[in-house]
Structure formats: structure tokens, C-alpha cells
Design goal:
Rossmann fold; ATP-binding cassette, subfamily B; six-stranded antiparallel β-sheet; 3 domains; six-stranded mixed β-sheet; 736 residues; alpha+beta; globular; ABC transporter transmembrane region fold; ABC-type oligopeptide transporter activity; 18 strands; ATP-binding; binds adenosine-5'-triphosphate; membrane; AAA+_ATPase; Cathepsin B, Chain A
Length: 736
């Protein structure tokens, strides 16, 4: 079974499928399978895997079966549900030669290939409550064999070339320094030989002094060169690092919101840290390796000059040690993937503990959360241990072969001295050269390892770099003036024609179903409905965070799918339920998009949002820092700043999702009155539970389980005594 490790925490399903496709002779990328398995933050479901399998021509059927049935069926490779939270491939059941007991061979995408005893297998496979476990049998159809493999192109190391180009002159200087350094190193063995043969043997103290002084000055020269080299390396390395990470962020911000739905914060954090390895590779490793190759080649020539046989022994053993190291490096590759996942989980866990500290304390969740954190540390420790062992075996073997080489070469050289074929100076010189040639070989191995790590980091980047941007060239900007709908002079507005929506692929529940509504231009539309009825989702569709599964959304005449998402959002003032306050001044938090803030507009929006008196009560007024690294603000103040942000933007469309839910009745009333003139000529959609917010809307849409259950004015809906009435009944009784 060709093992394929998972790349991200939630990738086990796609990785299992990739192994199975590979088993039948096709290499599908994890990204492709991931995109077709409707992965969510919780990972992929069995139905998601079967959808992805279908998309590549593999029939999949899942069963809940007993161990006996599994043993009898013998259909391999199959995917099995593991520890209730993971998928692995079962690729063989064998009998042990010694004990005759069954051995289950599994490929765990987060661990590697494993052979498990029946008890151990049962423990992870059988679900706790019954005697059965879940197995998915897969069989390739003709379509699988005839289909063309869809894989996105992999980023190659040459992708990194563009990062080196701006630093051409510094890199040229580095080469020059390296070259001079190499020349100096070359002089040392010659001086050593001269010291012995022309100084020590003829007992000439003057020559000895001169040669040693010469050595001292060359040594000093080398130190100065290496200081200069490190300075340049640091400068170039830092700049490249900044560039790579800034490109990564730029790319991230171009991706659709949906992309972020299925990824964990830890995965992103870890990717950013991962970048250092690429930078390391490009700068220190890449350049020192070139230097090493230069030194190595020069000494290679010198050794050839001394004795051909010594060179042969040297080359043969070096070759062996390199092969040895490469074998172990291959093993390390999978381990590196596993470590990445654990590190991502670790980051995620740290992030969650720090972010949720208040809730942890209030709800006494600390102990459990800390235990989870400790478990991650244990796993991290285990994987680090496996890596350490792997590295130790590699280094020990390499060192042993190296020492063997040194001893053999010294023996050969010494026997040449004994037989008079070489001078004593020659022997010392050869020893020096061998010493000098050892470290370039070690560096070369380090280079390959660094190359492998950089490639892994690149492949993780690949997923982000290869994802299509949200903005595409064929999309046009939102035109607020298109008028004719269906060729007739119709009303302007947003039209939703039979919209349905599912978050996670064809098998997931419909969050919105057959929504057929019109949001008229210049009017206020309110959306009400019980929690989870799909109100926020509807708003997200209007902002093109997601595309509808069925039906069409038209902004005046234009289908939303033909419009640039950026241009839609530029024309929308939005207050989301989980609106974000940045760590910045109040001023910047309100005027987010303007480089030069219009003070008049700023004050006006703060007044409309009824937040001005709070702002002015701070000594620094609009310059007061708020957000994570500034002053804390209350929930209501946050909502008012978010409203001020939308007002400052002064867009054509206004979407408010529970924008005033945290405010007291007085504040809400004031803001409402203030907003009335601001809403004039704007198309407004308000999601709210409060009667006072929705009752004056031009139309009220009532959503129930993702469908429109009622539509009309407040009075009409109250008289109807239907869904709307029961939603606001309590508030009516209070006379709100
Ligand atoms: N990113 C997501 N992935 C999967 N399902 C989601 C996602 N976001 C929301 N849902 C589901 O969609 C359904 C509708 O959610 P939505 O947030 O639109 O409801 P809502 O009417 O705005 O609720 P509330 O009044 O509580 O804010 C819910 O069942 C929710 O679990």
C-alpha cells in the first residue's frame, strides 16, 4: 500500500481516498479530493467521502458490520471509521507466522502504516455502544480507469526564484565573499605541508614563524569574511521572509469566505511559521551548500593530486553515507506531515484556551481543556520522539561511515609515508583535507533535508496559492443603475428566484429552500424568524460569501454570479452579528476604508449611531484605542461603533443582522429615529427579533426552517395571527 499522509487536521478522509485511488493506479491530489468531499471544520463525513469517491469513478458503500463479517468479507483496501473521529485504510488482514493470530494492516493518514493485533484493532474500530464498526467498501468502475486525473499544478522550487531576484546584487557579493573564503581555505593545507617539510624537518624557525603568522592572518581574514557573510545573509533572509509571508496574506485575502469555513486557525498559523523553512532553505542552506560544494570540489582536485587511491576510498564511503542518509530522510517526510498536524492542533488549542479564558473560568472547563491540551502535548512529544529516533539513526550511521572513511584514509596515507611514497607533511595535509571535506558532505545532507522540508512547506502553501481567487476577470462591477428586469420597466431591487442553499454539499440539509422574494429598491425589508431559520445565511448569500445551490439572485438585472463580490461589498454597509472591532483607534474603527478620514462624516456617523457622547467622554476622544489591545468596550458600544462604520461608508445597500440587539430600548429608539433619514433612498435589509425594529418596515419576511412562511406589513401579519404573530406576541402584550 502506497502511504499518503494527510496534510491538514481534517484531511484524513481525502487522504484515505487518495491512497485507494493510488492503489488502483491513479494519483489524485488531496486538494482535489478535499474539494469534492464537502469537508467542514469537523472534517469529512462518510457521505462526503462517498461523494468524492463517486466524483472519481469509485463506487462506495458503507456498512455497520461485526468483526466476523469484516473478516469474512476480505474486501481490501477499504476505509474504516477509527476511534469515532478519524478514517483509516484497512489494506490487509494476515495471519502471524509465529502466533497464528490475525494481524490487521492499516494505513493511518495521521500516523503511517501499522500492524495491529485483533484486540487493538477492535478497540479502535468497534464503536462503544454496539458490537459493530463502520466499514466503507470501495470498487473502481470503468469511469475511474477512463477518467482523466484532475490535479492542480504543484508549486515547484523554481517558484521561489522570484524571491531571490530583487536581491541579486547582495547575492553576488555573497558569492564573491564565498569565493575568497574558499581560496583562503585552500591555502591552509599547503601552508601545513610547507610548515612540516620546509620548516620543521630542516629545523628552520624563521620559516616556521612566517608560515604561522601567515596562517594567523588568513584565519583572521576568514573570520571577517564570515561576519560579513552572516550580516548579508540575515538582511537577505529577513527580507525574503517578509515577502513570502506578505504574499501569503495577500493571497489569503483574495480567497472566498468559504475557504476559511473549513480551516482551523492553527493550520494557518502553522503555515506561516512553516515559511521560515523556505527562507532558511533559500538563504543559509542554499548559499552555504553552494559554498560547501565549491570547497568540496577544490579539495577533491587537491586530493586527486595527492593520491588517486585515497580519493577512491573517500568517494566510495562518502557515497554510502549519502545513500544511508537519503533513505532515512524519506522516512522523515511522513513524520514531518504528522508533526505539522500536531503543531497545528497545538496552535489551535493554545488559541482557544487564551481566547476563551473567561468562558473556561465561568463554566469550570479549565481542567478538561487543559487535559485536552496535555494530550496534544503527549502526541507532539511522541511524534518528536519518532523524528528524533529517525534522525539519530541517520546521524549515527552517517558518522560511523565517516569515521570509517577517516580511519581507512589515514591508514592508507600512513602506509604511504612508511613506504616512503609520501612525506610527513603530505600525511598531515591529507588529514587536513579529509577533515575539511567532511563538513561539506554533512552540509550537503543538511541541504537535501532542508530541500525536502522546503518542498513540504511549499506543498502546504500550494493549497492556498492554487485556490482560485474570488475576483475573476470576467466578473463585472455592480451597476446600481441597471433597470429593466426581463425586458420590462420593472422595479429596481434585489430579486431572489427560488433560492436554495446547503452549506456542505448535496447530502447536507437545506438551510434555505425555494426562497422567492423581492427586496425593493429604496425600501426597508425586515427578515424575522426563529433562531436557526436561515436569516444570516440569506444575508451572506446577498453579500456573495456563498453562491446559492439552486436558483438565482439578481441585483436589478444582473445575476449575482456575474458580479464582482468586491464591488457588491463596496456598495453594502453591513453590521454582522459577530462584527469585529479592530485593535485600533475609534476613528479608524469607524472609517475603515478611507485612507484620509473625513472628520465631518466621522462625527455625523458617530452622532447617528448615538455613540458620540461615549467617544467624547474618553480623554483621547476619537483617538482612543479600542479592541483587543486597547480599551474594552461594552456589547452595546461595539454595536454602535459597527453601525457608525456602516453609516460612515454611506453605501447604497444596508444589511443589518441584529445590529441593535444589545442596546437598551432608549438607545435603540434614538438610533432608529436617527437612521430613518439615513435610510432614505437606500435599500435596507434588517434582521431583528425586536418588534420595535421591524414593525415600521415596508415589508416583513418571515422565515421558518429555511422557507418563507409569511410576507407582508406588520399590521397585516399581526391580524393574520400566524408565525409572525407568535414570534412577536410577547412583545405585543408588553406594548412595545
Ligand atoms: N458555516 C456553516 N456551516 C454549516 N452550517 C451552518 C454554517 N452557518 C450556519 N449553519 C447552519 O445553518 C442554519 C441557519 O443558520 P443561520 O445563522 O442562517 O440562522 P439564523 O436564522 O441567522 O439564526 P440566529 O437568529 O440564531 O442568528 C443553522 O442550522 C446553522 O447550524
Amino acid at each position: 500500500m502506497h502511504f499518503i499522509p494527510q496534510k491538514d487536521q481534517m484531511d484524513c478522509g481525502p487522504a484515505c481516498l487518495a491512497m485507494i485511488a493510488r492503489h488502483y493506479g491513479k494519483s489524485y491530489s488531496l486538494n482535489y479530493l478535499r474539494d469534492h468531499s464537502f469537508i467542514s471544520r469537523e472534517g469529512v463525513s462518510l457521505s462526503g467521502i462517498s461523494e468524492a469517491a463517486k466524483s472519481i469513478g469509485i463506487e462506495a458503500a458503507s456498512y455497520s458490520i461485526s468483526l466476523d463479517e469484516l473478516n469474512q468479507h476480505q474486501s481490501f483496501p477499504s476505509i474504516i471509521h477509527w476511534n469515532q473521529n478519524h478514517f483509516v485504510v484497512l489494506y490487509a488482514i494476515r495471519k502471524s507466522l509465529f502466533t497464528g493470530k490475525k494481524i490487521y494492516k492499516i494505513a493511518d493518514p495521521s500516523h503511517g502504516l501499522l500492524s495491529l493485533s485483533e484486540d487493538r484493532f477492535k478497540k479502535s474500530w468497534i464503536s462503544k455502544d454496539n458490537k459493530e464498526g463502520i466499514a466503507m467498501y470501495l470498487s473502481p468502475t470503468d469511469n475511474f480507469f477512463s477518467a482523466k486525473v484532475h490535479n492542480e499544478k504543484e508549486l515547484s522550487i523554481s517558484f521561489l526564484y522570484k524571491y531571490l531576484v530583487p536581491h541579486r546584487s547582495k547575492i553576488a557579493l555573497l558569492f564573491l565573499l564565498l569565493f575568497v573564503g574558499t581560496l583562503i581555505t585552500l591555502i591552509f593545507p599547503i601552508l601545513t605541508q610547507k610548515l612540516i617539510d620546509d620548516g620543521v624537518e630542516p629545523k628552520n624557525l624563521k620559516i616556521i614563524t612566517y608560515i604561522l603568522l601567515g596562517q594567523l592572518s588568513f584565519f583572521l581574514g576568514n573570520i571577517i569574511l564570515s561576519i560579513l557573510r552572516n550580516w548579508i545573509l540575515l538582511a537577505v533572509g529577513t527580507q525574503i521572509n517578509i515577502q513570502i509571508i506578505s504574499d501569503f496574506f495577500k493571497k489569503l485575502l483574495l480567497l472566498p469566505v468559504k475557504f476559511f469555513d473549513t480551516r482551523m486557525m492553527g493550520d494557518f498559523n502553522q503555515r506561516i511559521q512553516d515559511h521560515e523553512r523556505i527562507e532558511q532553505f533559500l538563504t543559509s542552506q542554499g548559499i552555504t551548500t553552494l559554498f560547501s560544494i565549491l570547497v568540496f570540489s577544490v579539495f577533491f582536485g587537491v586530493l586527486w593530486f595527492y593520491d588517486f587511491r585515497i580519493l577512491i576510498v573517500y568517494v566510495a564511503l562518502t557515497f554510502l553515507s549519502v545513500i544511508w542518509s537519503l533513505i532515512w530522510m524519506k522516512k522523515r517526510k511522513s513524520l514531518d506531515y504528522f508533526r505539522f498536524q500536531q503543531q497545528s492542533q497545538n496552535q489551535q488549542s493554545n488559541f482557544e484556551i487564551l481566547n476563551g479564558v473567561t468562558e473556561l473560568k465561568i463554566n469550570q472547563y479549565e481542567t478538561l481543556k487543559l487535559r485536552q491540551w496535555e494530550e496534544i502535548q503527549h502526541k507532539l512529544y511522541d511524534i518528536n520522539m519518532r523524528i528524533l529516533k529517525n534522525d539519530q539513526i541517520q546521524v549515527a550511521g552517517f558518522d560511523f561511515l565517516n569515521q570509517l572513511k577517516n580511519i581507512l584514509v589515514t591508514f592508507l596515507a600512513a602506509s604511504f609515508v612508511v613506504s616512503g611514497k609520501m612525506t610527513l607533511g603530505g600525511l598531515l595535509s591529507v588529514s587536513y583535507i579529509i577533515g575539511q571535506m567532511n563538513s561539506p558532505v554533512a552540509q550537503l545532507i543538511g541541504f537535501f533535508r532542508s530541500l525536502q522540508e522546503a518542498k513540504l512547506s511549499l506543498s502546504r502553501l500550494n493549497e492556498v496559492q492554487n485556490h482560485p481567487d474570488e475576483e475573476q476577470a470576467n466578473l463585472k462591477p455592480l451597476d446600481l443603475n441597471t433597470l429593466n428586469y426581463n425586458g420590462t420597466q420593472a422595479k429596481k431591487g434585489i430579486r431572489l428566484n427560488n433560492i436554495s442553499f446547503q452549506y456542505e454539499g448535496p447530502k447536507s440539509p437545506f438551510v434555505l429552500k425555494d426562497i422567492d422574494i423581492f427586496i425593493p429598491e429604496g425600501k426597508i425589508t425586515a427578515i424575522v424568524g426563529s433562531s436557526g431559520s436561515g436569516k444570516t445565511t440569506l444575508m451572506k448569500l446577498l453579500l456573495r460569501f456563498y453562491d446559492p445551490t439552486a436558483g438565482e439572485i439578481l441585483y436589478n438585472d444582473d445575476n449575482i454570479l456575474s458580479l464582482s463580490p468586491k464591488s457588491i461589498r463596496e456598495n453594502c454597509g453591513v453590521v454582522m452579528q459577530d462584527g469585529y472591532i479592530f485593535s485600533d483607534t475609534i476613528k479608524r474603527n469607524i472609517a475603515t476604508g478611507d485612507e484620509h478620514i473625513d472628520t465631518q462624516k466621522l462625527h455625523n456617523s458617530a452622532r447617528i449611531a448615538n455613540i458620540e457622547s461615549f467617544i467624547l467622554s474618553n480623554p483621547l476622544e476619537y483617538e482612543t484605542k479600542i479592541g483587543a489591545s486597547g480599551n474594552g468596550i461594552s456589547g452595546g458600544q461595539k454595536q454602535r461603533i459597527l453601525i457608525a462604520r456602516a453609516v460612515y461608508k454611506n453605501p447604497h445597500y444596508i444589511f443589518f443582522d441584529e445590529a441593535t440587539s444589545a442596546l437598551d430600548a432608549d438607545n435603540e429608539k434614538i438610533i432608529h429615529n436617527n437612521l430613518q433619514s439615513f435610510f432614505k433612498d437606500k435599500t435596507v435589509v434588517i434582521i431583528a427579533h425586536r418588534l420595535s425594529t421591524v414593525k415600521n418596515a415596508d415589508q416583513i419576511i418571515v422565515l421558518k426552517d429555511g422557507q418563507v412562511s409569511e410576507l407582508g406589513h406588520h399590521n397585516y401579519l399581526v391580524e393574520k395571527k400566524g408565525e409572525y404573530f407568535s414570534l412577536v406576541k410577547n412583545q405585543l402584550e408588553l406594548g412595545a
